[in-house]
Amino acid sequence: MRKIAIGQAGGPTAVINASLVGFLDKISDKAQVYGIMNGYNGLVENDIKLLEGSLLEWVKKNKNVPGACLGSGRYRFTKNKIAKAVQNLKKQDIHSLVFIGGNGTMAALQQVGLEAKSIGYDLQVIGIPKTVDNDLGGTDHAPGFASAARYVALTTRDISKDLEAMRNFEQVRIIETMGRNAGWLAAASGALKNSEQDGPHLIYLPEVPFEIEQFLTDVKETVDKFGMATIVVSEGVSPVGASQVEKTNVIGRAVLGGISNKLEHLVQTELGLTARAEILGMTQRSSSLSISVQDREEAYAVGQKAGECVLEDKSGIMVSIKLIDETKYLYNVGTCSLDRVVKSGERLFPSKFIDNRQLYYNWLNPLIGTDIDPYPQGLKLTEKEITG
Amino acid sequence: MRKIAIGQAGGPTAVINASLVGFLDKISDKAQVYGIMNGYNGLVENDIKLLEGSLLEWVKKNKNVPGACLGSGRYRFTKNKIAKAVQNLKKQDIHSLVFIGGNGTMAALQQVGLEAKSIGYDLQVIGIPKTVDNDLGGTDHAPGFASAARYVALTTRDISKDLEAMRNFEQVRIIETMGRNAGWLAAASGALKNSEQDGPHLIYLPEVPFEIEQFLTDVKETVDKFGMATIVVSEGVSPVGASQVEKTNVIGRAVLGGISNKLEHLVQTELGLTARAEILGMTQRSSSLSISVQDREEAYAVGQKAGECVLEDKSGIMVSIKLIDETKYLYNVGTCSLDRVVKSGERLFPSKFIDNRQLYYNWLNPLIGTDIDPYPQGLKLTEKEITG
Questions:
Q1: Range 155-184 of A in CB contact (< 8 A) with B
Q2: What is the DSSP string of A148-165?
Q3: Can you say whether the dihedral through the CA atoms of B242, B246, B248, B254 is positive or negative?
Q4: What percentage of chain B carries pLDDT values higher than 70?
Q5: What confidence score (pLDDT) does residue A387 get?
Q6: Annotated catalytic, B133?
Q7: In percent, how much of chain B has pLDDT > 90?
Q8: Which pLDDT score, from 0 to 100, does residue B379 have?
Q9: For a FRET experiment, which of A8, A134, A384, B186 has its CA 20 to 30 Å from that of B3?
Q10: Closest residue by Cα to residue A294 from A140, A88, A171
Q11: Does A290 touch chain B (CB under 8 A)?
Q12: Residue A374 at interface with chain B, using a CB cutoff of 8 Å
């Protein structure tokens, strides 16, 4: 019976376990599937477990649970560790390796495939896309993103309604989203905006140069006009000439985060307005409340497709989602080469969407779900408030 | 026709508009109801609007929208301003004043009532309870709290699952909740915990002395045991001998917040573990995703009851929720005197719940909703992880 190892890597999402379960549902009765614990760390340390019996049942029960039920994590691969990973697979006669992850995961998977080839070990490598940042190439979008985008859009709308009620006490909220160097998530914050006076009023993306003077002018104008400003800033934004804001952990690895605190300080000291930074944090990638049904279905479907690809002896590929109709949301699940994914690097928020935000929302709305109640439009009340 | 003014004050909630609409549904065809804009600020500035026609329709459409559709805010009442508020009501021949709010709102309402009495102006004053902190006396609990508690419980569960997957990268998350000086919300974070190894592992409440040495020992022991620690801390917690962590806004008013950042720093420097502060922020009080159906129904019911009280010429009271059966959740809506509410001050998290957390969750669960899917219990996978 064919032996396959599958792992989850990088930051978890609200639907990554659906991909794992999709894979298992397709293949667990046709092969021996081993779960790799804690991402590439488990592959190198040979911490893998046969998924059968009560363990398999338990994993399947995790389909709708956020996080990554095999354990994920971030891991620094080295040449030696890659060699060790391949040796571990060889010792156990495992000839298929599947990883669910983003850019780093796909690059690592490609390296493992090349190492196996270089020692003449027959190893099938298949990637399953996953990232809330949506910065992965070779696919129209990656599972995990839509649920995070849904959270960002709904939360921005709610926080803005809260601020609207509190204008005599505070005027500015600066909501910080994930996204690394790509603005997909931050831009999603405006998906439910109905009118000019609704938040978010200002959105700042890493792809667009950020000038502090212009920012302060924008904020002042917005507060003059609406009595408030709901601002969204991507964690990857850096003022022109400055570096991105990040924090280094105890083992010396840096993570992005904190630009909203800097801007809060600027708004308070330069404009004399009360501002509050709101870092959406880990909830945006893990909220079980905000899961998009479409996202979960697609996460499951890419997992199933990876199972098919294993059985069809494909290798050096990543499963990919292709939109086949832009007017009415239809997609199919295909594949693209790992080479292409790795070569394309970080997929930034495209200029066509920067130039035409509505075009972006037309594309995004079917992904985040059309079951979201519209807020009522502001009537006389808000108009009076604005002029008052 | 009777003329009534109603306002919303203090921090908004996800269900405060349901109370307003409950009130209007009961009374808007029997009286002229004026909406006071932006809380007590609007009462003093005489910014009030007759709620009729399209404006009334618009307000009613806001029933399920977070924030406070009349505008709320924090406001410093003075003797002069109270006198001005009463004069404004007198000029317009409004003899009924209703406010939806928490402790500060009820104290202000009582003051307005006393001022009217002192000048011989007949003024009916009625309070409708609202606070996510649940620190309001005279009622079993206040609308707004249950939805916030639901958000805190679900989000802590999700963030903890995310951390569980990331243990090779970071070990400690410190989730900071609202609550002011009361631990109701922070304690709610454990409502969905299934087993010892699930988060939250440690919860710190303002009512219990907080010793830094003990905290560090607790964190170290938890990480040794589970490879991670999900910690919840109320914004009102202060280390023994130190003051609460707060931030002063540009007009000199302080708000609590930031203890999680201090603890993050401590854990990193003293224990050498990677820690991340997660401030739940404004989302916990405004999330439309986490609204508890029970909470919204009760918010609507207390609004309706206030309408009845107006028609019955009651005054000097606050609507109040009383549990009438502890074994199966049944409540009725009555009233209590404003005097009693004001005298009882901040209602802290009681020692019976500190001593017996399960007792608290038995009380809380019907409020936050029993429609929450249980996460699967950890099986072999997690056991191995713990010992590994």
A1: 155, 157-159, 161-170, 173
A2: HHHHHHHHHHHHHHHHHH
A3: negative
A4: 97
A5: 39
A6: yes
A7: 88
A8: 63
A9: A384
A10: A140
A11: yes
A12: no
Task: Determine the Cα–Cα distance for residues B155 and B372; give it in Å rounded to an integer.
Answer: 12
Question: Which residue does chain A place closest to B288, by CA atoms?
Answer: A158
Q: B285: which 2 tokens?
A: 């009080």
Whether residue B8 contacts residue B102, with contact meaning beta carbons closer than 8 Å, is answered with no
**pLDDT tens digits, A169-214:** 899 999 999 999 999 999 999 999 989 999 999 999 999 999 999 9
B81 Ramachandran zone, left/alpha/beta (phi>0; psi -120 to 50): alpha
Quick one: pLDDT at residue A327?
Answer: 76
Nearest to A338 by CA among A202, A136, A163, A187: A136
Say whether the peptide bond before residue B350 is cis (omega within 30 degrees of 0): no
- Does any CB of chain B come closer than 8 Å to the CB of residue A14? yes
Q: Is A182 exposed, middle or buried (0-12, 13-18, 19+ CB in 10 A)?
A: buried
Sheet holding A202-204, edge to edge: A202-204, A229-234, A172-177, A275-279
B87 CA to chain A: closest CA distance, Å? Answer: 22
Beta strands in A27-169 (DSSP E): 32-36, 48-50, 96-101, 124-129
B274 backbone dihedrals φ, ψ, rounded to 5°: -80, 125
3-state secondary structure of A349: coil
> Are residues A155 and A188 in contact, defined by beta-carbon separation less than 8 angstroms?
no
- At A257, give phi and psi (nearest 5°): 150, 140
| CA–CA min distance B5, chain A (Å) | 16
Interatomic CA distance for residues A195 and A96, integer angstroms:
52
Task: Determine whether the interchain pair B14/A69 forms a contact, defined as Cβ–Cβ distance below 8 Å.
Answer: no
Residue B281 in 3-state DSSP? coil
- pLDDT digit string, tens, across residues A76-103: 899 999 999 999 999 999 999 999 999 9
Instruction: Extract the tokens encoding A233.
Output: 């800033």
Q: Which residues of A touch B274 (CB under 8 A)?
A: 249-251
Measured distance CA(A364)–CA(A370) in Å, rounded: 10
Return the percent helix, strand and coil in chain B, to nearest 5: 45, 20, 35
The reply to whether omega before A200 is within 30° of 0 (cis) is yes
Count of other CB atoms within 10 angstroms of residue B328: 6
Residue type, A323: L
| Residue B48 Rama label (left phi>0; alpha psi -120 to 50; beta) | beta
CA distance A101 to A41: 14
- What tens digit of pLDDT does each residue of A237-288 get? 999 989 999 988 887 888 899 999 999 999 999 999 999 999 999 999 999 9
**3-state class of B305 per DSSP?**
helix
User: CA B48 to CA B67: how far, in whole Å?
Assistant: 18
User: Distance (Å) from the C-alpha of residue B351 to the closest C-alpha of chain A?
Assistant: 31
Global pTM value: 0.96
In this prediction, residue A383 carries a pLDDT of 46
Q: Judge whether A384 is closer than 8 Å to chain B, CB to CB.
A: yes
User: B279 has which bridge partners?
Assistant: B176
What would the 3-class secondary structure string for A243-270 be? Answer: CCCEEECCCCCEEECCHHHHHHHHHHHH
- Measuring CA to CA, which residue among A208, A237, A381, A46 is closest to residue B54? A381
The C-alpha atoms of residue B95 and residue B261 are separated, in whole angstroms, by 48
Calpha distance A13→B99 (Å, rounded): 42
Task: Find how far residue B371's CA is from the centre of its chain.
Answer: 21
Tally of residues, chain B: 388
Nearest to B56 by CA among B100, B30, B25: B25
Place of tokens 């614990």: A37
Q: Write down the residue that tokens 């894979």 correspond to.
A: A23
Q: Which residues of B touch A289 (CB under 8 A)?
A: 151, 154, 158, 287, 289-290
Give the separation between CA A246 and CA A255, rounded to whole angstroms: 5
